[in-house]
Amino acid sequence: MIKSIQNIKLATKLLLSILVPILVISILLGGLGYYNTGRLSGMINEIVNQRVPSLTSLTTVDRATSKLVLDQKSMINAIMDSRTNMETYKQATIQDLDDLSVTLDGLDTIATKYDDQDILEKSNDVRQVTEQYKELFEVSIKKIDSMKELTTTMEESANEVITLTEEYFKDTVFLKDNNSVFSLPVLVDILGTSNTVRFNQVQYMLYKDPAYWVEAEKGLEELATSFNELKRLTVNEANLARVKNMRSATERYYEAAKLWNSTNDELDSAVSQMNVIGERVQQNARAAEEVGWAATESSKAKAENITLLSNTINLISIVIAVVIGVLLGTLIPRQIVKPINSIEKAARSIAEGDIDQRITVNSKDEIGDLAESFRKMIDYIKEMAATAVLIADGDLTVNVNPRSERDLLGNSFHAMAKSLKDAITLVAASATDIESSSRQLASSSEQANLATQQISMTVQQIATGTTQQ
User: Fold this and answer.
1) Domain carrying residue 308
2) In sequence order, what DSSP letters do the residues of 195-261 get, joined into one string?
3) Cα(76)–Cα(147) distance, rounded to whole angstroms?
4) Which CATH number covers residue 310?
5) pTM of the predicted model as reported, rounded to 2 decimal places
6) What is the DSSP string of 144-209?
7) pLDDT digits (tens, 9 = 90+) for 293-323
8) Alpha-helical regions (H) of 352-395
């Protein structure tokens, strides 16, 4: 790898030392950012399109179940309270059931779309209990309608007894026969007992106190006795018909009252079951809502984990990119500086006169080219130095070949060698002339010496002659 880096061009190395960290950071951060953005978008989509609508529906279910139970209880209370309109609460309860069903359908649609089995399970629990509640509600409505009809029957029967008794009384009050006179107290008892029975039945219907029903039955038995007594005293066919109708109306009243009581017991049982199931509906609705909140909290935790993981990965990516940058920033400059230092050291030694240098940089980049140029320069300097040594040693036979017309040193050495050769030739010629002159001077000197000797001999002869004289 280092060899590969060495062979990369210098500009490319510098470019890589800058671009690689940037690209690494960009790719890591960009890729991870894209990945985490996708995950966060998924979580946001889950929260916005699944969790929030689910929670909204679950909250609506909770409110609807609470309102359902409240309206149902208000409807039951309105049965015996003439101040309230039972029909209003009945329709409100029906609407509550419809709204709850629609809300559950919407919740199931969302849960099915996102395959949320927990919500589907809880929604199904609420739906099942709601269906049970609805069945009991429908049964209760039938019971209430039946009780209303029975109440009407009792009212009509009681009114008929009283009306017939009053008519009988009016027709008899002014008659003087014994039967008429003795029938008047019986008629008064019938009126009083009828009102008492009616009162006790109403009280029982309001308070469900069995004592009132006992008193009502006791009064009905007394009415039966009074009807027998009145029949015995009645001789008028019209009045006998009235007594018969009074007895029939009382029997209808009694049957309606007993049926009302049993129906009321059944209604109470149904209402009790509805109350229990209503609580279950609310509990299941709240349980479903808790599941929705738990799922939302889970989505929130996932989003937080994704954010934390994203931040951690980003930090790690930055660290990795920094490490890569440091490695590249250290390795590449070292690959640049080290050979340059080697070349610089060789150049400094050459500058100091030491041309025996060896540059081992062999990379294929600009520095390698520089090293190759330095090697050629060193070879050139060594060649010139060797030429200088030969010339210094007097070997003028050396042949200096300049590298080019711009080879100042080579051309200078070539010119110097030529000049030295010419000078030596001239010196040799001068030496020959000097040698010839020397020989001539030597010959002249010998002649002069001979002349001197002759002169000396002559002088001696003259001196001898003088002495002799």
Assistant:
1) 7-318
2) HHHHHHHHHHHHH--HHHHHHHHHHHHHHHHHHHHHHHH---HHHHHHHHHHHHHHHHHHHHHHHHH
3) 12
4) 1.20.1440.210
5) 0.58
6) HHHHHHHHHHHHHHHHHHHHHHHHHHHHHTT--SHHHHHHHHHHHHHHHHHHHHHHHHHHHHHH--
7) 887 888 778 778 878 877 887 788 788 877 8
8) 366-392
